[in-house]
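Secretory carrier-associated membrane protein, pasting as requested.
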Amino acid sequence: QVRGAANPPQYQTTPSAQPAIMQPTQEIPPPVYAKSGQQQAPTQQISTAEFQEVALRVSHSLLMSSDRMKLRSGDWVRRQEELEKKAQELARREEELRNAPYNARRNNWPPLPEKCCFQPCFYQDINVDIPLEFQRIVRMLYYLWMFHGCVMILNILGGMALMIHQGDFTTFGLAILYLILFTPFSFLCWYRPAYKAFRSDSSFNFMVFFFVFFFQFMVTVIQTIGIPGSGTGILTAIKCFDSTVGGATVGVMTLIIALCFGSAASMDLLLISKIHRIYRSTGASFAKAQQEFTSEFLRNEHVQSAATNAAAAGVRAQMSSSRY
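Structure tokens follow.
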């Protein structure tokens, strides 16, 4: 037979002997609550001594912080006062320059007394003439020039010691000559050009400074080595050491002077390198130096008068020759 909707299949089920009854489920009861160490809030008792110690530490830290704040505020006030004093000094000097007749500045270097028969030859005021960013390096050049002069004086003393100990008159005489020549010429030939170069951004003065200062550096290196006739250098100091007390004393003295020459040479090299970096960063060049030299040369009154006289003499000579 074909099973279908008209003839559905017949299922035989066995009737249950007992009716269905719902069985209750058995649940596991929760554990009994008991206070443990983790559940209890930690309690800590602070003694009076510990509380006082903590209070002292807190008060000490507060005092230290207040002292630091006072020091910082004091430093700030002091710096502010220094800046105000400098500003007032600059304002006073500018006012003096404005009130001076024809804006003329009186020479103040070298600083000589008014009753002296010689008068200052140059005007020098780094705080007024030199821009603020270059004042430090110009002062370093000025101090270096003075250090060179002091080393030259020590060189004379070393030459005198050699003359007494070994009868070396040559080193002593040359030391005097070096002091007379190098001290003023170094001021005129490399310090003043550097001063004017930083004052007016002059490429020509920078070129003069580099040329002369490099020569100064080479001479100082030779004097440090102590080539015979150059000064009291290392080689001269080594020759002085002997078994006598006088030789050891003169040797130590000349060695100290040689170290001073070496320090001067090191500072020369440091400053010329630093100034060269500044010079390259300003966009200056050799062509600009040539242009400045030409313009300054043509503006010179003596050059103009000489050119005028030469032209007048040429015209007169031409007229006299055409007349005859």
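Note for the archive: The mean pLDDT is 78.
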